[in-house]
Structures are given as C-alpha cells and as structure tokens.
Amino acid sequence: MKYGEKAIKNVRLSTWENQYPKRDYEIDISFPEFTCLCPISGYPDYATIRIKYIPDEKIVELKSLKLYLNSYRNLYISHEESTNKIFAELKKKLKPRFLEVVGDFNPRGNVKTVIRVSTDQKK
Question: What are the tens digits of pLDDT across the range 16-45?
C-alpha cells in the first residue's frame, strides 16, 4: 500500500479552533477532483464538491478534508447519498452557523446532476 492510500484509509476529519468566533465570515471550499463509484453499474462518477460555511467555534482542517473526500473514490455510493453524507459529517464536526454542500456531478449518459444540501438559512 502506498503512503497516500494509507493516509486515505486512516483519515479522520479534523477541526481547528476558529480564531474569530464572534465574526461572521464565509469559508468557500472547492474540491474539483471528487470521485466515487455508481452503486448500480460500478462506473466511476466525477464531481466538484463545493462546501460553503459560516463557522462558529470550529473550522475544518483542509488536509484532513482532502483525504476525507478522497476516501469516497472506491465507495459504491449514489450522488445523493455522498453529498448528504459529506454534509452530515461536516455539520456534526463543525456545528457551523450555516453550511451548504453541493455535489456538482459531471454528465454521464447525457444526464447532469447537481445535489445541494444546506442548513435552513444563513444566520
């Protein structure tokens, strides 16, 4: 097993203390190389995952986020499930004031899918 594969296998989504917890500011992260496998066909699906959030006490550590998102590459998981699962994990870890996760999947079979999951509103 190569070192990158080991890092992905052992990933734990990490957080840091927000140095500005009283300030409302938005963090916008784009991950254009997301991939997973279709649970029906096994064909690869590719997407850009966009994460937008207003932190409270915690912010996500970017290297752990990169490895966490890479951990989906060998999972048989739908567009909807992967986007919702990423949202749920970030919401649980960060407890942000606002969170939105968008799975913008590349067309396959001439069908384009965009999944958007968010908390009720920006506060």
Answer: 999 999 999 999 999 999 999 999 999 999
Say if 123 falls within a structural domain: no
Tokens of 113: 């899918």
The question of whether 28 is a catalytic residue gets the answer no
DSSP 21-51: TTS---EEEEEEEEEEE-TTT--EEEEEEEE
Report the domain count for the chain. Answer: 1
Catalytic member of 28, 36, 45, 104: 45
pTM: 0.93
- The domain that holds 29 is classified in CATH as 3.30.1130.10
- Catalytic residue, from 38, 56, 104, 120: name it: 38
